[in-house]
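Technical annex, item 7. During the second reporting period the consortium partners agreed on a shared format for inverse folding records so that results from different sites could be compared directly. Each record opens with the tokenized structure and is followed by the designed sequence. A conforming record, contributed by the partner at site C, is shown below for reference.
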């Protein structure tokens, strides 16, 4: 069983502005299709049983907008394996109503934020209702953390250090910093080590093996392996290629340094649902409804 804490539902290319789509050519060395297909996700798992946390994204500043209804519809295609998260852009009027609607009506079980893409700081006072709502309803919050290919996104908003202030104020909220906060992994390690409910995912990193090897050496030396969660950032990468990429890191030796292969296996099979307080999706979880 693989728990992928970072998979996207991007239903149409026009969810992204033309300038975002042009900037996205810098995402990976080869082009990434910005439209997700459930079958492509499932086929990319290599036959492993899986549960995926799925979200779209909302960031008016840089031209990203996926309605939460699209995410709910996508998750309904395989409700035994997918858990939907809502997305919120707290710079936009009406975000608090969207938050309540996403949880109460659509049954979405967590929140995805894009601070840099939308141009806000996660510790900003205007987000207090969000962190309180997440705490009250036990909604994990996953933030894009780390750099971007998008020119108009202010990089300072993404720095992992900002989550320190949030976690001090809201220690019960489960928070995931995506992509290990690349290339600010040192800050990510600093905050996930301090705070029991701060985690990081390793999505969309294996294709920079030099960097990821060193990042995971930091994880090793600070002994925060148990805070690292598996993720793909699908459609950017698939489950099978991420598993292969991570295992490849176990082959690297630099002088006397190497990554423990058993810790890499533990990332691949980590029970992120339990760590995040999420029920396994399926008939039993659905019967309970959103309350
Ligand atoms: Zn992503």
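Designed sequence (site C submission):
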């Amino acid at each position: 069983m693989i728990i992928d804490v970072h998979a996207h539902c991007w239903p149409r290319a026009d969810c992204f502005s033309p300038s975002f789509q042009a900037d996205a050519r810098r995402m990976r060395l080869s082009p990434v299709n910005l439209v997700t297909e459930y079958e492509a996700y499932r086929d990319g798992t290599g036959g492993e049983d899986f549960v995926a946390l799925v979200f779209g994204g909302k960031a008016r500043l840089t031209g990203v907008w996926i309605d939460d209804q699209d995410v709910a519809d996508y998750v309904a295609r395989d409700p035994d394996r997918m858990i939907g998260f809502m997305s919120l852009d707290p710079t936009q009027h009406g975000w608090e109503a969207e938050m309540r609607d996403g949880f109460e009506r659509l049954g979405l079980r967590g929140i995805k934020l894009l601070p840099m893409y939308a141009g806000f700081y996660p510790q900003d006072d205007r987000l207090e209702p969000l962190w309180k709502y997440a705490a009250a309803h036990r909604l994990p919050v996953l933030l894009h953390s780390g750099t971007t290919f998008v020119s108009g996104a202010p990089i300072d908003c993404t720095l992992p250090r900002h989550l320190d202030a949030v976690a001090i104020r809201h220690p019960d909220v489960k928070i995931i910093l995506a992509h290990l906060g690349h290339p600010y992994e040192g800050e990510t390690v600093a905050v996930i080590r301090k705070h029991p409910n701060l985690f990081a995912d390793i999505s969309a990193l294996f294709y920079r093996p030099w960097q990821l090897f060193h990042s995971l050496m930091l994880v090793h030396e600070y002994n925060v392996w148990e805070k690292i969660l598996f993720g793909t950032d699908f459609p950017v990468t698939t489950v099978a290629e991420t598993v292969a990429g991570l295992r490849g890191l176990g082959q690297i030796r630099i002088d006397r340094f190497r990554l423990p292969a058993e810790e890499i296996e533990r990332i691949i099979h980590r029970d992120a649902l339990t760590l995040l307080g999420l029920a396994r999706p399926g008939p039993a979880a659905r019967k309970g409804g959103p309350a």
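The chain has a mean pLDDT of 94. The domain at 2-280 is CATH 3.20.20.140 (TIM Barrel). All partners now use this format for quarterly exchanges.
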